[in-house]
Amino acid sequence: MKKKAVDKSSKPGGTILSKFEFSSLDPLLSDSGILKMLIWLLAPVAIEQMKHPQLISSDPREASGLLSRLKEKAARFGSADELDALNINDDEEMNALLQWAYSEACALIRGNMKVCEELAERLAGGTSTVGDCVAVLEGW
After folding, report:
1. Average pLDDT of 25-44?
2. Less packed terminus of the chain by CB within 10 Å, N or C?
3. Nearest Cα to Cα of residue 35 among 70, 9, 78
4. pLDDT given at position 60
5. 133 to each of 22, 51, 74, 78, 106, how far by Cα in Å?
6. How does pLDDT run across 12-21, given as a tens digit for each residue?
7. Cα 38 from Cα 104, distance rounded (Å)
8. With left for phi above 0 and alpha for psi between -120 and 50, is residue 20 left, alpha or beta?
């Protein structure tokens, strides 16, 4: 993965985002892959928090649990070097990483709220097929 310089003030959580350049082909067991998984794990929390004052079905501990398990098992899988850029051994950096992932999840949801709501309506209706849901996501 390539590192690139980015203006840290231009992005939420810039201290983390500025270190990485993302590619759609990044493996999940890499620094950028872990960041993508954290955003994915915190997206349900973000959307539920936007709609309700209290979390009922989503669990924010999933993302921190992933990082904790990675800390424990990274050496066993030979990926400790790839994850060093994330500094997940430092609790302060880990909390900053989780806050950044949550803010990115919120930004993605806000930017795609219409699609999220339409998809939620189709899923809640119970009569939509997988093709109907894909059509919403693809904008057909």
Report:
1. 82
2. C
3. 70
4. 87
5. 27, 21, 36, 38, 21
6. 444 454 455 5
7. 10
8. beta
